[in-house]
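Internal QA ticket QA-208
Title: Verify multi-chain structure generation after dependency bump
Assignee: T.L.

Test input:
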Amino acid sequence: MPTARSTSFDKYDAYARSVQSPREDARFMRLVYRNVNKSEPTVLREDFCGTFALCCEWVKLDETKRAIGLDIDPEPLEYGASKYLSELTASQQKRVTTKQRDVLVRHRAASDIICALNFSYFCFHERATLLRYFKSCRQSLRPNGLFVVDAFGGPQHGEPSLDRKRLPGLTYFFEQENFDPINNRTRFSIHFKPRDGRTRKRAFSYDWRMWSIPEIRDVMLDAGFKAVDVYWEGTSRDGRGSGRFNRKEKGEPCQVWVAYVVGHV
Ligand SMILES: C[S@@+](CC[C@H](N)C(=O)[O-])C[C@H]1O[C@@H](n2cnc3c(N)ncnc32)[C@H](O)[C@@H]1O
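Actual output:
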């Protein structure tokens, strides 16, 4: 993640409040694993973990849970150690491990679940690289292991756009700056406007390839996953995403969608 431009503005806290739901993510993955395997997962590996808030929520679920967080950038790892890890009990802290590491390098520890959330693997632009990453994840999963990624898309993301969300004391902007339909490459930036401060333009920026669900599914199958499920978001009464995800064979057309894609070992 880019370096903070100002020491007085906590961009990781603003990011967490704007886009993360680590408690819900931890519960969702435990539920999916339970439903698929009729057993309890123990080890979660969070790839592209950033501040590893999800690892910290995972070990809170019960005393058997262990978490491994991998990220290439030391800055969010250090932030997570001081902000989230330090809030855990001694027993919970012992069950979280983080490593500053490229996720493309195979990690030896075997996990029940490996996840790559907030679309982080969109940083891989070539199919060969995505396949290499997915294969390495499959090899690091235990029998009955699950590989969980999220994905988003829809017609809105075929051109530049700006979404805005007002939070207490803060406005969050998610800007799609461009889109190239020849290679599906796109630049997204996150800006923040604190109520009492100047706008932090491009607090985070991403050079992503928009991967479609059929592409992700095919690459997972090519990587050796024996089955791939899609969890599609329900719609609430106001027509927005409900935040509830169910396994589906068919989606619906919408301007913007978010889904989880789950590979089974
Ligand atoms: C979009 S943030 C995601 C943070 C967190 N997973 C979340 O859900 O919000 C992407 C993270 O991926 C990390 N990253 C990018 N390329 C990586 C790589 N090849 N290996 C490990 N981490 C990487 C960045 O340092 C950054 O912290």
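Spot checks passed. The chain is about 25% helix and 35% strand.
Status: verified.
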